[in-house]
Amino acid sequence: MKLALGCDHGGYLLKEEVKKHLDEKGIEYVDFGCHSTESCDYPDMADAPCKAVTSGECTFALLFCGTGIGISIAANKHKGIRAACCSDCFSARATRMHNDANVLCMGGRVVGPGLACQMVDEFLSASFEGGRHQRRVDKLTALEQ
Q: How many other CB atoms sit within 10 Å of the CB of residue 133?
């Protein structure tokens, strides 16, 4: 498993904390930026990580902005991306199990580093359940056509 990471300035510090957690766990990732707290635009920062997921270069993406909302909206504009903005562990796990989400978005001004790392662990350890959920994911995919 390889992860794609991306953030704007509002999510930069949280991304950096999550990177330390991923390093400790030996999880491979590609950091597509940004690389400072200097102002940048979340739609730009969502693009490369989402393309890395849809191309198969990366399995999942973790995206960060101030609230997690803007970058999740931008991510969901990419065909094949199912991004969820989460601020609790239950939602982070459930979105993998029920929505087959491939992108987890978090807000650096909403979620603390400890919770963010727990959410990443829940997201990455969960598996899509299929079954009745597959029918719903298929309907989401059909909306992209």
A: 14
pLDDT tens sequence across 1-10: 999 999 999 9
Known catalytic membership, residue 65:
yes
Measured distance CA(50)–CA(6) in Å, rounded: 9
Is 21 known to be catalytic?
Answer: no
What domains can be seen in the chain, in order of their start residue?
A: 2-143 (3.40.1400.10)
The position carrying tokens 């359940």 is 129
Query: What does the alpha-carbon distance between residue 9 and residue 28 come to, in Å, rounded to a whole number?
Result: 23
Q: Torsions phi, psi of 80, nearest 5?
A: 95, -5
Distance, in Å, from the CA atom of 35 to the CA atom of 53, rounded to the nearest integer, reads: 20
Residues 6+ apart with CB under 8 A from 132: none
The tokens describing 14, both together, are: 């949280």
Tell me the three state secondary structure of residue 142.
helix
pLDDT band at 145 (very low <50, low <70, confident <90, very high): confident
* Other residues' Cβ atoms within 10 Å of the Cβ of residue 52: 21
Candidate list 7, 50, 58, 65, residue with the active-site label: 65
% of the chain with per-residue pLDDT over 70: 100
